[in-house]
TrEMBL record:
It comes from Modicisalibacter muralis. It holds the Pfam family adh_short_C2. SUPFAM superfamilies: NAD(P)-binding Rossmann-fold domains. This is 3-oxoacyl-[acyl-carrier protein] reductase. InterPro entries: NAD(P)-bd_dom_sf, SDR, SDR_fam. It comes from the Bacteria. Belongs to the short-chain dehydrogenases/reductases (SDR) family.
Amino acid sequence: MDLGIAGHWAIVGAASRGLGRGCARALAKEGVNLVINARDADVLAATAQELQSLNGDIEVRSVAGDIGNEAVRSAILTACPQVDILVNNNGGPPPGDFRDWTRGDWHEAVDANMITPIELIKATVDAMASRGFGRVVNITSGAVKAPIDTLGLSNGARSGLTGFVAGLARQPQLASNNVTINNLLPGAFDTERLRSGLDAASKASGQAVSLIREQRLQGIPARRFGNADEFGAFCAFLCSKHASYLTGQNILLDGGGYPGTF
Ligand code: NAD
């Protein structure tokens, strides 16, 4: 299927590894020009080179730095001649016990996983509407639907973004001008973040990583973790011309892990 987005420009945040990189790879294969961001300049440069090698017809630009920083966001926006597609992604907040979290910890989480994507949406959607095409995909978490106790900072901050997006996506000046805003909710995907979580759980419990991994897989009907490329393929479809009637939705990619009917 031709997704109909070749030649468009996309910003993908936190894209040097993991799910962001998977989205950038899928968009590159579809002929989308990219501005990618992540903190580590060397890893980001290697990812940019890899994306360029996937498709010699596209342009790939990179902006290194913390996407939570206003100057970095401004550099990302300046690097992108026209933002047709915005994939909002960032690192996730650390796990822990809410009894230990300070106001500062909460502000950091809300800033990173709610306000940062909202600022990028604010900077881009009205111009998308004036051109009659725009796609925003926010990478959030399955924890928005099925909260994970130890990830309270993530549950809270991402739910704030989800509530905001639910209202914004339904503004007629966006929806009637072919601008869609949707959230992709990853369950368990085999990325560095997931692997470091398994390592931390192993250290905390004294159980082998392989055992923790197996226990985690038992909670997933697909009996495997997702991979970043399949996540990216779904993201690219959401960004396609075919997905113009889908907006304001929360789509869970979790191998059947969430047990509810809706
Ligand atoms: P990852 O650790 O594999 O990759 C994270 C990427 O984000 C890296 O490229 C890193 O350099 C970049 N990054 C981190 N903080 C950044 C910042 N402040 N500014 C710019 N770049 C930054 O993580 P992942 O598994 O790909 O996760 C991506 C997002 O999805 C995270 O918010 C994570 O919490 C969420 N998530 C992941 C899973 C999963 O199973 N992997 C499940 C639910 C939610």
